[in-house]
Write a structure and sequence with these properties.
six-stranded antiparallel β-barrel, alpha+beta, globular
C-alpha cells in the first residue's frame, strides 16, 4: 500500500482543506420551542410552613427554548447547504454561520431520515452573491487506509480540522449499533465529537467523500459518515422538495454466525429455532411490509439473493 508522502499531504490539506473546503463548512445553530407541564406547587408553604408542597391545581404549561448546534457544508454558490436530518429536525429557527462570520437564516427544503440528510436553502438578501462550496467527490473509489479529514464545529470550536484514515468501508447499521438507517457507513478514526454532525469528511484533495453522522459513545477513534454517493443519489429529488425514493423490504436482519445461532436458540423470547447455516437471519418483520406479503417470517435464514450466496462477514 503506497501512501502519499507527508509533504504531498501537507500541501493538499493546506491548499484544499484549510483554505477552500474549510471556508464552506458552516456552523448550524437551531432553536426549538418545547412545552412542558409544570405542577402548580405551594412551595411557600413548604419552606415557611414545614409541610410538603401541595398541588394547588392543574399543571401550568411553560415554554422552553432548546438550543443546539451542528455542522454543515455549502454545495452550491446560491446557498444550498447539506447537513444531517437529526440536526434540523423539528426546529423553529436555523441560523447558518460561515467561518468569515457571515450569518444567514435558512429553511429546510427536504429531509431524508433514512439517509440522515437534510437540504437547506439560505435566505440571502443578495441573489448575486456567490458563496464558497465544498466539491463532492466519489466514495466508490475510497479505500481502507486512505486519508480522511473531518471538518466541523465540535463543542462550539468553529472550523476544527481533524485527521485520520478510512478504517472500514460499508459498515452495516447492525455493526454500528443502529437500526434507523438503510445504507452502509464509512468508518473513520478521525476525531469526531458532539457538534461535528453534518460536517464533511474529506479526502486528501479536499473533496467530500462523506457526511459525518455519528460516533460511538464511550469509545475512541470510531466515527461514521454517510458515503457521498448515497447523498448524491438522494439530492435530485430533495432539491425539488420531494422525498427521495428508497427500496423498501421491511425486515430487520443480522449476519448469521455460529455464536448468534446459539444465542437465539437459547433465548425463549426469540420464539423460534434458527438453522445452523450460512446466511442472514431475519430478526423481525414490519407488519404490512413487502417482506410480510411475500411470506418471510421471523427466524428465516436468507441464504441467497438474486443467485448470489450470502455468507458471514
Amino acid at each position: 500500500l503506497i501512501q502519499p508522502s507527508y509533504d504531498d499531504f501537507r500541501f493538499a490539506t493546506d491548499e484544499n482543506v484549510s483554505y477552500a473546503a474549510g471556508n464552506a463548512v458552516v456552523s448550524i445553530d437551531t432553536k426549538r420551542s418545547v412545552q412542558q407541564d409544570v405542577p402548580d406547587l405551594d412551595i411557600f408553604a413548604f419552606f415557611f410552613g414545614g409541610v410538603p408542597p401541595r398541588d394547588r391545581g392543574p399543571a401550568k404549561t411553560q415554554t422552553q427554548v432548546v438550543q443546539a448546534r451542528g455542522s454543515g457544508f455549502c454545495v452550491d454558490p446560491s446557498g444550498v447547504v447539506l447537513t444531517n436530518a437529526h440536526v434540523v429536525s423539528d426546529v423553529d429557527v436555523i441560523t447558518i454561520t460561515f467561518p468569515s462570520g457571515e450569518e444567514h437564516t435558512a429553511r429546510v427544503i427536504s429531509e431524508d431520515p433514512l439517509v440522515d440528510l437534510a437540504v437547506l436553502q439560505l435566505e440571502m438578501k443578495s441573489k448575486a452573491k456567490q458563496l464558497p462550496t465544498v466539491q463532492l467527490g466519489c466514495s466508490e473509489h475510497v479505500s481502507v487506509g486512505d486519508w480522511a479529514i473531518a471538518v466541523g464545529n465540535p463543542l462550539g470550536l468553529n472550523n476544527t480540522v481533524t485527521l485520520g484514515i478510512v478504517s472500514n468501508l460499508e459498515r452495516s447499521t447492525g455493526e454500528a449499533g443502529w437500526d434507523w438507517a438503510c445504507h452502509k457507513f464509512i468508518q473513520t478514526d478521525a476525531a469526531i465529537n458532539q457538534g461535528n454532525s453534518g460536517g464533511p469528511l474529506l479526502d486528501e484533495n479536499g473533496k467530500c467523500i462523506g457526511m459525518i453522522t455519528a460516533r460511538v459513545q464511550f469509545a475512541e477513534a470510531i466515527g461514521f459518515a454517510v458515503p457521498v454517493d448515497t447523498l448524491r443519489s438522494s439530492l435530485p429529488a430533495m432539491l425539488k422538495g420531494r422525498q427521495a425514493p428508497h427500496a423498501y423490504l421491511g425486515v430487520r436482519m443480522k449476519t448469521l454466525t455460529k455464536e448468534l445461532c446459539i444465542q437465539r436458540n437459547a433465548d425463549p423470547a426469540f420464539g423460534c429455532l434458527v438453522a445452523d447455516t450460512k446466511g442472514v437471519l431475519v430478526e423481525g418483520i414490519m407488519p404490512g411490509s413487502p417482506a410480510a406479503t411475500a411470506g418471510i417470517k421471523k427466524g428465516d435464514v436468507i441464504i441467497r439473493a438474486r443467485f448470489v450466496h450470502l455468507h458471514p462477514l
